[in-house]
């Protein structure tokens, strides 16, 4: 955990105006998983609960980086054909726990996951981005929707294809968005497979069987909530902790309920923006200089911060 300092709630711009009840509802989803040191959700005034039970702690040194992620919804088929040729896969039976498995390039070259297909998609880029997001809704031809989420990965490091395109001079000064990646791949179909193989990390999925109104499953094994759940680096911010997020017009209390391969550092957060195309546009464009302030139980806060 990085250097930490104690703050007052009065130092959080917009604190009084936030919807604390929405934040408490998100906190309640995982509150039973965080241990006895953490306060159990209480009925009554939500703002009063947070102010009485927690102390704001700034871990690390702002400014930090805030990005967004989302749950795509894309068409798919249960069987290959009619242009649906790009699968999402279940994990292999022999996936080792103590060392990396084969890389993305090796998996594709050797067709090492044959027979592990869960569902078929029409676009290899969307199949790749589903792995980056870690969850996806697939709408089948009969109108039904199946929910797939993270099951495991091959143990290789994540390498951003967006950063690779930026290195090549694509995109603006702030880098390239997800839609920019899609556009580049449409314009360069012959080069797309090599670009995707730049990332050796490979994510395997499982059928979640979730109802349509539930968020996808986060790292804590519970559904995440749009605009109230945050992916963090658990080496710095405890999973399950409320986190005040500010920057770029955002001033809201969220809950650290997820992680991500690219989310590293005390002042790094990835906001779950929701499901579908509109959420994807927002998430894809989000790159905000901001600040994270973690709410810790008061006794814990005094032990680690000054």
> Count of helices?
9
Shape: globular
Number of domains: 2
**Roughly what percent helix?**
10-25%
Quick recap of the structure?
The chain is an alpha+beta fold and about 300 residues long. About 25% of the residues lie in helices and about 30% in strands. It has helices at about 20-30, 45-55, 105-110, 125-135, 160-165, 180-185, 190-195, 275-285, 300-305; strands at about 5, 55-60, 65-70, 75, 85-90, 115-120, 135-140, 145-155, 205, 230, 240-245, 250-260, 270-275, 285-295.
Outline the secondary-structure elements:
Layout lengths: L3 E3 L13 H11 L15 H8 E6 L4 E8 L1 E5 L8 E4 L14 H7 L6 E5 L2 H10 L1 E5 L5 E9 L7 H7 L10 H10 L4 H6 L5 E5 L21 E3 L10 E6 L2 E9 L9 E8 L1 H9 L1 E11 H7 L2
Descriptive overview:
The protein is 25% helix and 28% strand. It has 2 domains: 155 residues, RlpA-like domain (Barwin-like endoglucanases, Beta Barrel); 137 residues, Barwin-like endoglucanases (Ribosomal Protein L25, Chain P, Beta Barrel), CATH 2.40.240.50. The chain is built from 9 helices and 14 strands. With 306 residues, the protein is an alpha+beta fold. A 6-stranded mixed beta barrel has the order 3-13-10-12-11-14.
Summarize this structure as a short list of keywords or feature phrases.
25% helix; Ribosomal Protein L25, Chain P; six-stranded mixed β-sheet; 28% strand; alpha+beta
């Amino acid at each position: 955990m990085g250097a930490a300092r104690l703050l007052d709630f009065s130092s959080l711009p917009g604190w009084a105006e936030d919807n604390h009840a929405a934040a408490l509802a998100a906190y309640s989803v995982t509150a039973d998983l965080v241990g006895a040191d953490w306060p159990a959700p209480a009925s009554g005034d939500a703002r009063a609960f947070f102010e009485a039970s927690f102390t704001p702690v700034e871990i690390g040194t702002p400014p930090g980086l805030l990005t967004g992620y989302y749950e795509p919804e894309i068409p798919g088929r249960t069987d290959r054909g009619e242009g649906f040729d790009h699968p999402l896969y279940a994990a292999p039976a022999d996936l080792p726990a103590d060392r990396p498995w084969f890389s993305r390039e090796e998996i594709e070259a050797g067709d090492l996951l044959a027979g592990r297909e869960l569902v078929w998609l029409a676009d290899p880029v969307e199949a790749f981005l589903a792995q980056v997001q870690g969850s996806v809704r697939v709408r089948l031809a009969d109108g039904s929707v199946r929910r797939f989420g993270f099951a495991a990965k091959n143990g290789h490091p994540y390498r951003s294809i967006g950063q690779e395109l930026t290195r090549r001079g694509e995109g603006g000064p702030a880098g390239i968005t997800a839609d920019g990646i899609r556009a580049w791949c449409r314009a360069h179909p012959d080069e797309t497979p090599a670009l995707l193989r730049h990332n050796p990390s490979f994510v395997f999925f499982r059928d979640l069987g979730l109802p349509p109104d539930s968020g996808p499953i986060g790292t804590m094994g519970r559904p995440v909530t749009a605009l109230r759940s945050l992916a963090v680096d658990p080496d710095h911010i405890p999973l399950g902790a409320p986190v005040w997020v500010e920057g770029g017009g955002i001033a809201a209390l969220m809950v650290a309920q997820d992680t991500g391969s690219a989310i590293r550092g005390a002042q790094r957060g990835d906001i779950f923006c929701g499901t579908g195309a509109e959420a994807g546009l927002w998430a894809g464009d989000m790159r905000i200089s901001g600040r994270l302030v973690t709410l810790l139980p008061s006794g814990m806060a005094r032990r680690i911060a000054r």
